[in-house]
Every structure is written in C-alpha cells, then in structure tokens.
C-alpha cells in the first residue's frame, strides 16, 4: 500500500458522488431491517455484506456481538464506531463507504482503521474497551459516527474531562474538514450520553441530533460529505501527529 500524502479532494468528492445511489440504498436497507442484539441479526448481516464489497481486509464479530472491520496495518490505530439501528443508519453507511473510498483511491498511510457497528446500545464503556484490547485492538483515538449536523463534537480525553481544540485528534478533524469543504468547522464540547469510553474521542456525523431517528430526513449532501470526512480523516490524523510538538 503506497502512502497517500496529498489529499486529492476533487477526486474524493467526485467518487463519493458516483456512489450516491449505492450509499442511499445501503442506508435505506439499514433503516428498514430490525436490529435486535446479537451478531446474527439481519442488520449486522447486511452491514457485513457491504463491508465485504468495500473491501475491508479483515471482518469479524467479537464476543460482545460487535461487527469489526479492518483496513490498513499501520502503527496508528483509529476506531470509528456507529450504532447499528435505524437511527444510526447514516453513520454506518458513511463509515463503510468511507472505507470504500480509502480503498478505491489508495488513501493509505501509517494507520490501521477499525470500523465498528453493533446493535447493543449499552456496549460502550471500560468493559467494551477492555474487550477490544483483548481482541488485539488498542485504539489511539475514536471517532463516533453519530448525527452532529456535520459539527465536530469534542468528547472525552483519555482520563477525564473534555478534549480541547489543541488536542491532535481535534486538530486532525479540523484539518480534514477545512481541506474538504474549505470552511472552518463548528466545534463544541459535548458529553457522551453513554458511559466514559477511556480513549480520546470526538463525534462527527450527518443529520441533526434531534431528528436522528428519521434516517430518510438526513440530506444526501450530509451523507456524502460524512463519507468523504471518514475517508480523509485517518490520513490527516497521521499527518497531524507527525508535526513537531505533537505526541505520536
């Protein structure tokens, strides 16, 4: 895999729009099927089908019933996570097609990207993080693909409190947004509605939080832009932490 040091935003945007029909159909499929707990649920099977087409290099289900897919094998581990239910359909669709864009455009660098999806609402927390580590996944950071109206929500630091704008994770998200959309992003400090995760985390996704249950009401523009963001972010994160003065 040849590292892609320069982000070709035009090619990324063009390819994302070429996949518009496929992304929309995938989102509709996810919003339409039931999402009971467990790795045999129809929604998990549907997500796996799309992951295999991306293609991700490794796909598995952990003991908590969480679907995990890997792309890349670099030293910096990035975890993207979304809820596999009708409300989280747009986040899952954006993540999976973000991976497809990475593969299609060869946007690899010194990162390992893990994409996670589960129907369990209570999974995130210290036990969940420990289960990931026992499965060999030690994330440096986490991007939660949930509705944020394409705003960057600064969630938690590794130990306690919120991330600040100077944190490498936030800086990478800002750089990604500005490179893609040529505008400064809207930032906010937003507590997670779930338990603390135990790893630096931000949230970014298509759609507004108050209408997240209505996946069909999310503008297609949001979904396509989110897919581009998820594709570009891993490379930007690696470039950000390599800057002088940043922790690696």
What does this structure look like?
By secondary structure, the protein is an alpha/beta fold. It has a single domain, classed as Zn peptidases (Aminopeptidase, 3-Layer(aba) Sandwich). Helices cover 39% and strands 15% of the residues. The chain has 7 helices and 8 strands; from the N terminus they run αααβββαβαββαββα. Strands 1-2-4-3-5-8-6-7 form an 8-stranded mixed sheet, with helices on one face. Strand 6, helix 6 and strand 7 form a beta-alpha-beta unit. Helix 1 packs antiparallel against helix 7, helix 2 packs antiparallel against helix 4 and helix 4 packs across helix 7. The two termini are 21 Å apart. The model has no long low-confidence stretch (mean pLDDT 86).
As a percent range, the share of strand residues is 15-25%
CATH superfamily: Zn peptidases
Roughly how many Å apart are the termini? 21 Å
**SS-derived structural category:** alpha/beta
Please, how many helices? 7
Which descriptors apply to this entry?
alpha/beta; 7 helices; 248 residues; Aminopeptidase; single chain
Compact description:
The chain is an alpha/beta fold and 248 residues long.
Secondary structure: elements and pairs:
Elements: H1 9-18, H2 20-32, H3 42-53, E1 58-61, E2 67-71, E3 76-83, H4 89-105, E4 111-118, H5 126-134, E5 141-144, E6 152-154, H6 168-181, E7 187-189, E8 201-203, H7 220-241
Parallel strand pairs: 3-4, 3-5, 5-8, 6-7
Antiparallel strand pairs: 1-2, 2-4, 6-8
């Amino acid at each position: 895999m040849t590292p892609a040091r320069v982000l070709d935003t035009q090619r990324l945007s063009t390819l994302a729009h070429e996949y518009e029909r496929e992304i929309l159909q995938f989102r509709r499929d996810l919003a339409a099927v039931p999402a009971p707990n467990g790795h045999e649920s129809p929604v998990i099977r549907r997500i796996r089908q799309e992951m295999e087409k991306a293609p991700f290099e490794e796909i598995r289900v952990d003991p908590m019933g969480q679907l995990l897919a890997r792309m890349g094998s670099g030293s910096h581990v990035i975890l993207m996570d979304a809820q596999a239910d009708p409300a989280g359909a747009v986040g899952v669709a954006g993540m999976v097609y973000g991976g497809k864009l990475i593969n299609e455009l060869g946007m690899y660098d010194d990162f390992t990207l893990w994409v996670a999806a589960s129907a369990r609402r209570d999974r995130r927390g210290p036990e969940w993080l420990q289960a990931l580590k026992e499965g060999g996944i030690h994330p440096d950071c986490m991007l939660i693909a949930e509705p944020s109206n394409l705003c960057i929500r600064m969630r938690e630091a590794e130990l306690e409190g919120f991330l600040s704008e100077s944190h490498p994770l936030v800086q990478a998200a800002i750089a990604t947004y500005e490179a893609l959309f040529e505008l400064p992003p809207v930032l906010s400090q937003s507590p997670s509605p779930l338990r603390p995760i135990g790893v630096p985390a931000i949230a970014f996704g298509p759609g507004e939080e108050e209408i997240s249950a209505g996946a069909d009401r999310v503008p297609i523009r949001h979904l396509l832009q989110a897919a581009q963001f998820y594709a570009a972010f891993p490379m930007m994160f690696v470039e950000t932490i390599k800057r002088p003065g940043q922790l690696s």
